């Protein structure tokens, strides 16, 4: 159901539909859906697609969603969800190639258990998440798109090892420190934004990095080199 006139809460009885494969309640009326994400959704053992984005759902994310054995797509973005990301999300029973929790009010640290997953794309932007986010990267991952912008993340960027598959990275408006790893010159970067952080040092002069617009780098502590001012 897209852009309809349905409002109110998602009834727990939705969990009594054992053969349901797709549940998309997306951007429903000006009022949108409210209330919590029902824990009973974890009973939907054949569910492949769960998209509850662009609503006004509130409360915490049920940790039991990680028990969905067939889930391929999980979209909870653009709601009013609060609290931490469940630790269980690092142990999804289903494949879950990508996850979108953006535009909520999620807080706390990203669970280290997410290092167990190899997401192709991640969008945790516009929340209140803190601490480390390096678990999304690594030489053995196949991640292509990562958006962690507009959070309160704080970790050493210079120690991150990126997967060779990474094409899009947005970490703007955080508290990330360190320098830009020279390994990034070897990546096929289509989009990069590291602005509004606490990065320092020379922007690696190779690959596509020097040809990006200066706005991809500005408002950091002391980044320098093309396309910013030369280092002193």
Automatic annotation (TrEMBL):
InterPro entries: Leu-rich_rpt (IPR001611), LRR_dom_sf (IPR032675), PGIP (IPR051848)
Record-level GO cellular component terms: membrane
This protein's name: POLYGALACTURONASE INHIBITOR 2
A UniProt-annotated Pfam family: LRR_1
Gene3D superfamilies: Ribonuclease Inhibitor (3.80.10.10)
Keyword entries, A-Z: Glycoprotein, Leucine-rich repeat, Membrane, Repeat, Signal
Gene source species: Salix purpurea (Purple osier willow)
Cellular compartment(s): Cell envelope; Membrane
Lineage: Eukaryota, Viridiplantae, Streptophyta, Embryophyta, Tracheophyta
Signal peptide region: none
Top-level division of the source organism's lineage: Eukaryota
């Amino acid at each position: 159901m897209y852009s309809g006139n349905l409002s109110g809460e998602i009834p727990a009885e939705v969990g009594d539909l054992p053969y349901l494969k797709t549940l998309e309640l997306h951007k429903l009326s000006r009022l949108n859906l409210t209330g919590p994400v029902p824990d009973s959704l974890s009973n939907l053992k054949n569910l492949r697609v769960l998209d509850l984005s662009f609503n006004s759902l509130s409360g915490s994310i049920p940790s039991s969603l990680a028990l969905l054995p067939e889930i391929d797509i999980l979209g909870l973005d653009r709601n009013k969800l609060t609290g931490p990301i469940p630790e269980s999300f690092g142990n999804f029973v289903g494949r879950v190639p990508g996850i979108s929790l953006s535009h909520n009010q999620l807080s706390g640290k990203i669970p280290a258990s997410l290092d167990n997953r190899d997401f192709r794309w991640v969008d945790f932007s516009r929340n209140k998440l803190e601490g480390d986010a390096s678990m999304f990267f690594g030489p053995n991952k196949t991640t292509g798109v990562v958006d962690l912008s507009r959070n309160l993340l704080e970790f050493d960027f210079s120690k991150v090892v990126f997967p060779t598959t990474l094409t899009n990275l947005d970490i703007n408006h955080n508290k990330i420190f360190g320098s830009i790893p020279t390994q990034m010159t070897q990546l096929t970067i289509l989009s990069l934004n590291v602005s509004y952080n606490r990065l320092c040092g020379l922007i690696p002069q190779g690959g596509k990095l020097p040809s990006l617009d200066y706005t991809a780098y500005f408002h950091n502590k002391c980044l320098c080199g093309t396309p910013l001012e030369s280092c002193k």
